[in-house]
Amino acid sequence: MSGPGGGGPRAGRPTALAGQRDMRAEVLNTDQAHSASEAQTVLVTGATGYVGGRLVPALLATGRARVRCLARTPAKLGAAPWRSEVEVVAGNVGGDLSAALRGVSTLVYLVHSIGQGDDWAGREVADARNVAEQARRAGVTRTVYLGGLGRDSDDLSLHLRSRHEVGRVLADSGTPVIELRAGVVIGSGSASFEMLRYLVEVLPVMVTPRWVATRCQPIAIKDIVAYLERAVLDVTAPAGVYEVGGPDVVSYAEMMEAYARAAGLARRRLVSVPLLTPSLSSHWVGLVTPVPVPLARELVESLVNEVVVGDDRAEATFGVRPMGLDEAIRRALAAVERGNVPTTWSDADLVHFAPVTTDPQWSGGTMLSDLREATAEAPPEAVYETVSGIGGARGWYSGEILWQVRGLLDKLVGGPGLRKGRKRAIAVGDAIDFWRVEELDPPRRVRLRAEMVLPGQAWLTWDLEPSGQGTLVRQTATFRPRGLWGRAYWLGVAPFHRFVFPGMLAGIVADAESRVPKGR
Questions:
Q1: For 46, which of 7, 92, 124, 235 is 20 to 30 Å away at the CA?
Q2: pLDDT tens, 408-463?
Q3: Alpha-carbon distances, residue 176 vs 42, 126, 316, 383 (angstroms)
Q4: At 432, which helix (H) or strand (E)?
Q5: What is the separation of C-alpha 242 from the centre of its chain, rounded to a whole number of angstroms?
Q6: What distance in Å separates the CA atoms of residue 279 and residue 283, rounded to the nearest whole number?
Q7: pTM assigned to the model
Q8: CA separation for the pair 362, 515 (Å, rounded)
Q9: Can you name the residues that pair with 219 across neighbouring β-strands?
Q10: Domains of the chain
Q11: What are phi and psi of 105, to 5 degrees?
C-alpha cells in the first residue's frame, strides 16, 4: 500500500501506457475529432448537483457541444454564470422527458437519490429505467454515467449496489453506455471531502471503527470532470465500464493523515474500536460534520468496501493523468481558503441536502458570524468615510479597554498586538492595528482581515446600502474556526461581542451622522 503522495499499486499497468495516453490525447485534439463532436447536443441531468454544476461549464469551455440541462427546479440555475449559454428544460428523471431529449445525441446521467426515503435505491433504478427507455426511443446514441467503484463479487453496500445496478439498467436499454466508476471524490464542497475535513479538523483524537483501515483510491473532482468531458466529446471511445481513481491507494486513516499534513494540523491520533458499527459511526459523523445522518449513513456503510481501480483502461482510453492525493487536498483547501467553491454537495435538489445552520453562506466549511444592522441618517459616502477611518488614534468606538487587553494577549503569544497608528488614507493591504485591509469598495464595502494569533481566520466587514435618505449598515464579524480549539475560542469570546459590537456599530452611525451638515 502506498502512502499519500506516492505512486500506489496499479493492477495490470502496460509498459506502453504513457505512449497510449499521448496518442489518445492527440486524437482528442485533431480536427477530425472536433468535426465529429461539434454538432452534438448534450443533455446533462443533475446539472444542479455537485458534479453536474462543474461539468457544464467545462463542456461549454471546449466550444464543442451544445448543452441542455434537465432541472426539476430551473430557477436553481438562474445564478449560474453559464446560465445564458445553455438551454434549460424543466422536468425530472421519473417523468416525461420527450422535450428534454429531442435532438440529443449524448445523455449525461448524474442523478442520485442516496438516502432519500426508505426505498431510495428502488427509486434510483426505476428512474434510470425510465430515462434509458425514453433515451432509446428518442434516438440518443450514447449515455455517459458516473457510478461507483467496488467489485461486484464483494458484499457491497446498498449505495454501491445501487450505483452498479443503475449502470446495468442504462446499458440494458441497448443504447451504448460509458460508465465511469469512481470512489472518494476529493474537492472543495464534496460530501466525502467535507466529512474528511470536519473529522480531522474538529477531532485531534478520534475513536474510529475498523473501516479506517479499508483501502480506497481517491480522485480529485478536477480529474472526474476531465474524464466526463472526454467521455462526452470523444465519440470514438468504446462503450463499457471504466474504473477511475488517482495514483494513490491509501487507507482512510492514511487519507486523514494526509489531510492533517496539508492543513498544517498536528498529527491526529486514531483509536480503533471494533464494536463501532457503521450505523453508530453515521450518527457520530452527522454530529461532527455538516453532512446529515441519512447521507452519512449510506456513505459510511460504503467505507467497509475496498474501492480500488483494477485496470488502466480509463487512463489509456481517455488520456487523463489524475493528480495525487496530496495535490488534490491542497487544491481543495486553497479553494475553500479563497471562498471559491462553485458547487457543493448541498446543491443537489434533494430534501436532506441542505446546508446546516453553521454554514449560512456556503464557503466549503463552517463560518461563524455575528451580524448586526443599523440605519444611519447619512449618505453611504459619509458612512464609508467613517468606517474606513476606524482604528488607530480614532479607536474602535466601543470597548476600548477590551481591545487593549486583546492586543496585549496577542503580543504575549507572539502576535503583532494592537498596533496604534494607521495611514490617514488607507489602501488594500494596509495595516490597521492588528487588522489588514483586505477589500475597499467605496462607498459600498470595507473588509478587514485579522492578523492577531487565532485558532482560525477572522474578518470584520461593513456593507453599506442606500436606504431612503440614509444608509443601511451591515456589520459582520466572521470567523472560520480551525479545529476544536477554533470552535472553543469562538464560544469563549462570544459573550464579549455583546459588549463590543453593538457599541461599535452605534458609534459608526453617530459619527457618520455628525458629518452630515444640519438642514441637509
A1: 235
A2: 887 777 666 665 557 777 888 778 888 888 899 999 999 999 888 888 889 999 99
A3: 15, 19, 19, 63
A4: strand 431-432
A5: 25
A6: 7
A7: 0.64
A8: 37
A9: 185
A10: 17-347 (3.40.50.720), 368-514 (3.30.530.20)
A11: -100, -35
